[in-house]
Amino acid sequence: MDAPAARERPAIEVAVVMAREAAPNRWEDWRFHLVEVLAMQPAFGRAARCLHDDGKVARFLHPGLRIELFRDEAEGYHLNLSSGAPVVFVMWRIDEADPSRAWPEAVSLSYHEAGRWLDAQERVDNCPLPPDWREWLQAYTELHHQPEPRKRRRPQSFLPPGARG
Asked: Which helix (H) or strand (E) holds 140?
């Protein structure tokens, strides 16, 4: 059973579409990239499946992921929204035993969370944030984002000579 806080947390269930290209060059056997992130539909089902495969390019649907909003990520949401081109971030992995297979692990709307994934050497791609999701994220961010108060910087002349920058 979900904890009460988890039930109250705003969330969207999504499906991720990823593409796999066979032998894109002589150094790679496979190349993967994010195609899009869609709002979950009952017709998607629950299992990942191939949507198209022509031998060169294949597209796979990965349903059942969640985008959850967390109060402590409000600054990351604000940065995403104020970037001029808000995006959905998807962290994905390649199967070490079968490098022709990849799947999304997590989806987020926070710049900070995507940055932590990148710092951990994870693979992260992004795609444009749909307009209706943008409105949802904007409303949440306006409610919970508290800009850091500016700290007055002490003039250098008041610092001891050894502490001056």
From this structure: helix 131-144
Q: Is 91 helix (H, G, I), strand (E, B) or coil?
A: strand
Record the tokens describing residue 102, joined without a space: 């990849």
Place of tokens 């900070």: 112
Residues near 21 by beta carbon (within 8 Å), at least 6 away in sequence: 30, 31, 32, 33, 56, 57
d(CA 147, CA 47): 41
pTM (whole model) above 0.90: no
Q: What is the mean pLDDT of each run of 10 residues along the chain (165 residues)?
A: 62 97 91 97 95 95 97 96 96 95 97 97 97 96 84 68 67
- 20: CB partners within 8 A, 6+ apart: 30, 31, 32, 57, 58, 59, 60, 100, 102
Starting at the edge strand that comes first in sequence, how are the strands of the sheet with 11-25 ordered?
28-39, 11-25, 57-68, 49-53
CA 55 to chain centre: 29
